[in-house]
């Protein structure tokens, strides 16, 4: 949505004004979206006031008011309350037929369609927490009612906070959740472990933390900007008989690849269980 103007910005409603919604709204406004065409429903008065003050968007206490004339409705509420929220929005959705974008984990598109009364265009998305700083990664999938124009609208909304990737089979969204949705925590754990290991070897904690963080940041930028596969970049750093090779061999001998594969499989399975238990 770069170079967006008031006429090109679809009328947007965010149901829920928490951190992820705030990051998307901020990204949209920075990229030129018209604040006057964005409405937010948020029951917390303090959050409502902050969103209005920071971004100039219209704020409402209830979802139906925010979504009344929206072309795109972003469902940014917790999975536990999604059914109730959708049923509250049903009359508005059935009347105006907006595109629904859900960013809730584990809620299937057919559930959203059913709860909103049927025959609804739905995009399911899984953003991750780096979206809060404009560096997110979001997988998206769409049901058959979503038009090409609505796909572009979904890309613009989620793309305001980072990378978007379309996933054609909804069952693969549980894998996306396990990979990029939960993935930041895996990297935080690795940096935490690197910091602790360096401290154990005698480095002061402040120095260990700063070096570990910058190493992760630099490696991530190389992955994004170099264009080579991760394996190629790893090989460049690994000199035969050197310190890096010693560490890599230890990782592999301890089963790092298997640990990662098992962890992603466990997260994927948990996502499927959450979807199965979220109700019809």
Plain-language structure description:
The structure is a single chain. Helix 8 (183-200) packs across helix 9. It is elongated, with a radius of gyration of 21 Å. An eight-stranded mixed beta sheet has the order 3-2-1-4-5-6-7-8, with helices on both faces. Helix 2 (45-55) links the parallel strand 2 and strand 3. With 280 residues, the chain is an alpha/beta fold. The protein has helices at residues 19-30, 45-55, 63-66, 82-96, 109-115, 148-159, 173-181, 183-200, 205-226, 230-237, 243-253, 256-276, and strands at 12-15, 38-41, 58-60, 72-75, 99-102, 121-126, 136-142, 162-166.
Question: Which key features would you list for this structure?
Answer:
54% helix, eight-stranded mixed sheet, alpha/beta, single chain
What's the tally of helices? 12
Strand content: 5-15%
Describe the global form: elongated
User: How far apart are the first and last residues' alpha carbons, in Å?
Assistant: 35 Å
Tell me the strand order in the biggest sheet: 3-2-1-4-5-6-7-8
Helix content: 40-55%
Average predicted confidence as pLDDT: 93
Count of strand segments? 8
**What Rg do the Cα atoms give?**
21 Å
Largest sheet: 8 strands, mixed
In sequence order, what are the helices and strands, one letter per element? EHEHEHEHEHEEHEHHHHHH
**Unreliable runs, pLDDT <50, ≥5 residues?**
1-7
Please identify the structural class as seen in this structure: alpha/beta
What's the arrangement of secondary structure elements?
Blueprint: E1 12-15, H1 19-30, E2 38-41, H2 45-55, E3 58-60, H3 63-66, E4 72-75, H4 82-96, E5 99-102, H5 109-115, E6 121-126, E7 136-142, H6 148-159, E8 162-166, H7 173-181, H8 183-200, H9 205-226, H10 230-237, H11 243-253, H12 256-276
Parallel strand pairs: 1-2, 1-4, 2-3, 4-5, 5-6, 7-8
Antiparallel strand pairs: 6-7
Helix pairs in contact: 1-6, 7-12, 8-9
């Amino acid at each position: 949505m770069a170079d967006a103007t008031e006429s090109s910005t679809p009328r947007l409603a965010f149901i829920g004004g928490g951190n992820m919604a705030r990051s998307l709204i901020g990204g949209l406004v920075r990229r030129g979206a018209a604040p006057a065409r964005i409405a937010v429903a948020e029951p917390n008065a303090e959050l409502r006031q902050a969103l209005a003050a920071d971004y100039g968007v219209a704020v409402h206490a209830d979802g139906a008011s925010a979504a009344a004339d929206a072309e795109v409705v972003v469902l940014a509420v917790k999975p536990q309350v999604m059914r109730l929220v959708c049923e509250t929005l049903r009359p508005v959705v059935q009347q105006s037929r907006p595109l629904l974008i859900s960013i809730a984990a584990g809620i299937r598109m057919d559930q959203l369609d059913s709860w909103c009364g049927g025959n609804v265009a739905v995009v399911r998305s899984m953003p991750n927490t780096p979206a809060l700083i404009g560096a997110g990664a979001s997988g998206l999938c769409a049901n058959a009612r979503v038009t090409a124009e609505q796909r572009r609208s979904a890309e613009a909304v989620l793309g305001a906070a980072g990378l978007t990737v379309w996933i054609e089979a909804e069952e693969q969204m549980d894998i996306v959740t396990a990979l990029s949705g939960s993935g930041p925590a895996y990297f935080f754990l690795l940096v935490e472990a690197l910091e602790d290991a360096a401290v154990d070897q005698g480095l002061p904690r402040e120095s260990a933390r700063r070096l570990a963080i910058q190493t992760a940041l630099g490696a991530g930028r190389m992955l994004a900007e170099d264009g080579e596969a991760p394996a190629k970049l790893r090989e460049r750093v690994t000199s035969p008989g050197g310190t890096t090779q010693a560490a890599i061999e230890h990782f592999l001998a301890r089963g790092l690849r298997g640990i990662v594969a098992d962890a992603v499989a466990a997260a994927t399975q948990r996502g499927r269980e959450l979807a199965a238990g979220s109700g019809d």
